[in-house]
Design a protein that fits this description.
With 467 residues, this protein is α+β, with helices and mostly antiparallel strands. The chain is built from 13 helices and 23 strands. Helices cover 35% and strands 24% of the residues.
Length: 467
């Protein structure tokens, strides 16, 4: 693919999830999923019996499940039947049907079964993150596909995004199995668990597993030198983040080579596709080629470093900290992109960072719709793709220019420990604790944030225009 540009980040990341929204999940009160899932590579059949505990009140009365999966029964944790609606005229949320339950038991269990087309010739009409994909050699279920019942907020029209889990998984025909946040195992059956809330992703395939000091590579044979280059880059980013954020990256990323169900079409068009569900980075193109690009150096290497650093930033913002509410996407993506710029500057130099920043600015300048000012955000939908991946990081850079690197670092660390940032006042409170006084915060707001400005203005010019 060459350089993964700043402009391409929004295509690589789960933009579709933005339309669906994210319900509250994660943190110390993480929802817990347990049960069994059975998969067949040959037939595309999926069976599950899954229970969800510790659901917040706002998502206790409904769940979303992939439209290709049929609900057999719903029970409480003791096996007592729970009445539910959704067979006829169901609610729809993207790839999923929405089911409502007449009561909200403490533990909700759903038994379901379905079957999906298998494309061994890789000639499917389409493939994206919301597809439960079978290509003859692998099965891929990302969180967007709702392959597990996801607690659903009917009022906010939002699915739960992350859950802790303990699942027994079998995949007939698989050589290995992997769940996001757990180690991959050799075999067609395994038990997977994570006490940390994760976006649920399952992959089973027939390819190899390569482990290095800093990364795991799944489903592709990669030359040792290329694997080492990838591992070294991840190690360098992790070292920088440990110093900058004051906490190590406890997760090691897993690079997953996925052959898309429509790979024939992608190869014909020369297109590649990738998505990230931290700590998984899934790519339809060669992982080995990423390592080769890192070996070669130059601007192509800088692009790869920026992308890897962005995804590793999601260990902090997305795994350790995940704030629901209107600022969700700013807290998740703008912070990760800001961190990636800092890492790129440290590892690739000032020129590399400036090229990347120029790419962000070009996307912002090409955006035809006005931005809602950051201090006026009341709805997460206001922080669209260009906002969260391009405009938001530039705002954070402008804050750093005004308050200095030391206070900005303290601000980022403060955001990491702030569990519930929902308002502009919450952001200002974090800033105050980082040593950014009210006058400095207001100066940044008036010169850079107000009215959704794309270019900061001096206070002198603001005084002259009366704004």
């Amino acid at each position: 693919m060459g350089v993964i540009s700043a402009a391409l980040l929004s295509a690589l990341l789960p933009a579709a999830a933005g339309a669906q929204g994210q319900a509250a999940s994660g943190g110390n009160g993480a929802m817990k999923t347990s049960g069994t899932v059975r998969v067949s590579l040959a037939t595309g059949r999926v069976e599950g019996r899954v229970c969800i505990a510790d659901r917040p009140a706002e998502v206790a009365g409904a769940f979303a499940l992939n439209a290709g999966l049929n609900v057999a029964r719903v029970t409480d944790g003791d096996g007592k039947a729970v009445a539910f609606d959704g067979w006829y005229d169901p609610g729809i949320n993207g790839e999923a049907r929405v089911y409502t339950v007449s009561a909200a038991p403490a533990v909700l269990c759903v038994e379901y079964v379905g079957a999906y087309p298998v494309y061994p010739a890789h000639d499917a009409p389409d493939d994206f993150k919301g597809v439960m994909a079978f290509n003859g050699d692998s099965a891929r279920f990302a969180e967007q596909s709702a392959w597990l019942p996801l607690p659903f907020d009917n009022k906010a029209k939002a699915r739960a995004g992350t859950m802790a889990y303990a699942l027994d998984v079998s995949c007939e025909g698989c050589r290995f199995l992997y769940m996001n946040g757990s180690a991959a195992i050799i075999g067609d059956h395994g038990r997977f668990s994570s006490a940390t809330a994760r976006p649920p992703l399952l992959f089973g395939g027939k390819g190899p597993i390569t482990k290095t000091a800093n990364v795991t590579i799944l489903n592709e044979t990669v030359a040792p030198a290329q694997a080492d280059a990838l591992s070294a880059a991840v190690g360098q980013v992790a070292s920088y983040y440990r110093d900058y954020m004051g906490a190590p990256v406890a997760d090691q990323p897993t690079f997953l080579r996925m052959v898309a169900a429509n790979q024939v079409k992608r190869d014909r068009e020369g297109s590649e596709w990738a998505f990230a569900t931290w700590p998984t980075i899934a790519m339809s193109g060669s992982v080995g080629r990423v390592g080769a690009t890192l070996q070669a150096g130059g601007q192509a290497r800088d692009g790869r470093i920026a992308y890897i650093a962005h995804e590793m930033g999601h260990y902090y913002f997305g795994t350790l900290a995940r704030s629901p509410g209107p600022y969700f996407w700013f807290m998740l993506e703008s912070t990760a992109e800001f961190l990636s710029i800092k890492a790129l500057r440290a590892l690739g130099g000032e020129a590399a960072a400036q090229r990347h920043i120029a790419g962000l600015a070009a996307e912002v300048n090409g955006h035809t719709q006005p931005f809602v000012a950051l201090d006026k955000i009341t709805d997460g939908a206001s922080i669209g793709g260009t906002y969260r991946y391009h405009y938001g990081p530039l705002l954070l850079l402008s804050l750093e220019r005004q308050v200095g690197e030391a206070k900005m670092r303290a601000f980022l660390r403060g955001l990491l420990s702030a569990r519930n940032v929902r308002t502009w006042a919450d952001l200002q409170g974090v800033a105050a604790r980082a040593g950014i006084d009210d006058a400095a915060w207001e100066r940044w707001r008036s010169t850079c944030v107000a009215d959704g400005r794309r270019v900061c203005q001096s206070q002198d010019s603001l005084g002259k225009t009366g704004r």
